[in-house]
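Fill in residues.
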């Protein structure tokens, strides 16, 4: 077992973000095609309108996923990008816990 822990930058590389957005867009496009009956026997006009709508839905979902992921990455403090992730991010630090021996007295 190695002791190397990935940093946040290693976890969220731009190629991985683009890949995630592409997979989400492909999924949305396929769901749109299936729901519009593209794979059934349809006329050429109906198949073409289903394909155009699926491409529009896929494009919108690709842009939306990229935008949402980019905004979520802005919430990360740049000073903590190089730190290793070795515990859950949303748990409080050990220094913030109140002293169990003196109830009702706060540290200032």
């Amino acid at each position: 077992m190695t002791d190397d822990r990935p940093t946040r930058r290693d976890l969220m590389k731009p190629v991985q973000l683009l890949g995630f957005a592409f997979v989400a867009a492909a999924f949305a496009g396929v769901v749109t095609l299936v729901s519009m009956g593209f794979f059934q026997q349809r006329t050429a006009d109906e198949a073409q309108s289903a394909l155009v709508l699926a491409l529009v839905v896929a494009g919108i979902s690709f842009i939306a996923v990229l935008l949402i992921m980019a905004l979520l990455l802005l919430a990360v403090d740049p000073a903590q990008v190089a730190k290793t992730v070795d515990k859950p991010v949303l748990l409080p630090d050990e220094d913030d816990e109140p002293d169990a021996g003196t109830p009702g007295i706060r540290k200032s």
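DSSP finds three helices and no strands in the chain.
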